Each structure stands twice: as structure tokens, then as C-alpha cells.
């Protein structure tokens, strides 16, 4: 299923890839647990796909979950965690612009300060 979802994603068939990737994430959660690096990687993939589809309200909690998982597994200073923080910050700013919600910018700025990122 993972290979098929990756193929569809690469071909630009995001609507076809989404349900398959959701199934992959669920399978990894059940098998390896929420905090396993592979699970976190697929959570990131699903969040990215949702972001590309413009489903920011669904993507934000997944990016947040991935960040929290990386922080718990690797610590806040690790490059994976800092990369996850950057992804969430960028998404929050994008959502703030689209939704015209200042709260998204405030949250993004707080994360940027926490992780010492611009």
C-alpha cells in the first residue's frame, strides 16, 4: 500500500494517494506505535499531502503530532525535531495568511522562539 500511495503521490494523484497513506499511517501506529521513527515519517508524509491539497486544518494537528513525537524521541535540539518545528511554523504562517487569523501567527512565532528559528 505504501508503494502505491507513493506512486500516486509522485504522479500528482493526491486524492488517490490520501486514503492509502491514511491506511499506512494507521498500520504503522498499530504495529510500531505512535512514536516510532517510521510512524512519524509517515505522519509527516500524510500531513504534507494534506497541506498540498489545501486541507490545512487537517494537516496542522498531524504536523504538531510529528513535532511532539520527534521532540519526545530525539530531544528539542535534534535536527529532526528542529526540521519538524520549521515545517509546522511554515504551515501555521500559511494558514494564518489564508484564514486571516492572527492566532496562527502568534503560535508560529512562539514555536520559532522556542526552537530559535526565524
UniProtKB/TrEMBL annotation:
InterPro entries: NLR-like, TPR-like_helical_dom_sf. It comes from the Eukaryota. It holds the Pfam family TPR_12. PANTHER family: AAA+ ATPASE DOMAIN-CONTAINING PROTEIN-RELATED (PTHR46082:SF6), ATP/GTP-BINDING PROTEIN-RELATED (PTHR46082). This is Kinesin light chain.
Amino acid at each position: 500500500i505504501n508503494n502505491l500511495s507513493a506512486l500516486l503521490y509522485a504522479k500528482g494523484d493526491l486524492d488517490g494517494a490520501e486514503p492509502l497513506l491514511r491506511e499506512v499511517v494507521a498500520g504503522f501506529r498499530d504495529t510500531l506505535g505512535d512514536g516510532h521513527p517510521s510512524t512519524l515519517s509517515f505522519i509527516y508524509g500524510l500531513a504534507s499531502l494534506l497541506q498540498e491539497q489545501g486541507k490545512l486544518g487537517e494537516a496542522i494537528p498531524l504536523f504538531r503530532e510529528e513535532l511532539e513525537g520527534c521532540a519526545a524521541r530525539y530531544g528539542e535540539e535534534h535536527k529532526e525535531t528542529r526540521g519538524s518545528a520549521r515545517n509546522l511554523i511554515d504551515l501555521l504562517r500559511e494558514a494564518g495568511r489564508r484564514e486571516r487569523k492572527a492566532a496562527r501567527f502568534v503560535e508560529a512565532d512562539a514555536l520559532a522562539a522556542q526552537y530559535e528559528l526565524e
